[in-house]
Every structure is written in C-alpha cells, then in structure tokens.
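A reminder from the course coordinator: this example appears on the midterm review sheet, so study it carefully.

Given structure:
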C-alpha cells in the first residue's frame, strides 16, 4: 500500500513538473511547438521500441512513472498525451488561452490526488476544492479571472467525466486542455 502511495505521489509531482516546464518554455522560446512536436515523435518511437527492448533510461522512467497496465500495451501513454495536448493547445489557441489551458491540465489533474494521498479527512471534497483554487490561480496568470474560473470548472468537469470513462481509453491529458481552451476562447468575447 505504501509503495502504491509513493508511486502515485511521484506521478503527480512529475505531472506538475512537466506542465510547469512546458509553460516556462512557451513563455521563453518561440520554437516551443517544434520542440514539443519533435519530443512527441521521439517519445512515440521510444515507446514503441520499449515494447520490445529494455532501454536503460526509458525503462527507468516507465518503471517509476507509468502504470503497470500500460507498460506492456501503451508505455508512456500519459506523458505522450500530455505533450500532445499541450502542443495542440499551443497550435489552436492564442498564447494566453493556450497557457491557461495547460495550467488547468497541469493542476486540476494533479493536486486532488496529492490531497487524497495525505491523511486529511474528507479527502475527495478537500482535494477537489484545493485543486480548483490552485488551478484557478494558475490560469489567472494568463487570462482574466472570469475566464480562469470558467476554464477551471470546465476542466474539472471534463476530468471527472473522463475519469469515469477511462475504460474506453480516452485520455484526459489530451481532452482537458482542448475542451477548456476551446470554451475559454469561445467565451473570451463576452469577458471585458
């Protein structure tokens, strides 16, 4: 049980680190789209190769961050879909909306499980509330607070729906930034 908790803790911290890194790179470099595209292609190749071979660095990351059920069927699934979701957001939306949707993906997906790992009572309610607040604050750096609130709510709803439909293989790392970014973009004209 404790090993499982540590594994989930590492996964969520990696998720946050990856999201923040992509946001910082997007703010710093104009070539972020090319970088993410190349990273995605290399990642797909490495994941396909890892189905047949144990490559030292790739195997280390899979062993420490990938769920057991995907190692033999779709290694690197979460990371690949995370990068793809961020890349699509950066290609489809203007920069601030894209960054807000990446922030929503980064925190709405990771903070609630971190609270659930803790020893706090009523973990689900508290985790969801703290996750929504942190997500809202992060998204507010890039879009007006009303859009950040709207995007956070939509992101949380998308996450909850996709969590229940996980058996169909739909990945929230791809869908959440697209749904939240699209709806923030559509409603940005209504925000002063």
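Designed residues:
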């Amino acid at each position: 049980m404790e090993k499982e908790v540590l594994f989930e803790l590492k996964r969520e911290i990696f998720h946050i680190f990856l999201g923040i890194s992509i946001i910082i790179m997007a703010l710093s470099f104009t070539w972020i789209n090319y970088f993410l595209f190349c990273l995605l292609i290399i990642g797909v190749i490495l994941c396909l190769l890892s189905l047949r071979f144990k490559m030292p660095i790739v195997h280390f990351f899979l062993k420490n961050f990938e769920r057991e059920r995907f190692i033999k069927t779709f290694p690197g699934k979460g990371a690949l879909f995370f990068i793809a979701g961020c890349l699509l957001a950066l290609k489809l939306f203007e920069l601030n909306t894209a960054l807000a949707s990446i922030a929503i993906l980064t925190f709405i997906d990771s903070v609630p499980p971190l609270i659930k790992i803790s020893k706090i009572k009523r973990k689900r309610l508290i985790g969801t509330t703290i996750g929504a607040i942190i997500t809202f604050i992060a998204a507010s750096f890039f879009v007006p607070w009303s859009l950040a609130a709207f995007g956070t709510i939509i992101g949380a709803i998308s996450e909850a729906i996709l969590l229940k439909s996980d058996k169909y293989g739909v990945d929230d790392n791809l869908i959440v930034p697209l749904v939240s970014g699209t709806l923030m973009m559509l409603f940005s004209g209504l925000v002063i």
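Residues 2-190 form one domain. The chain has ten helices and no strands.
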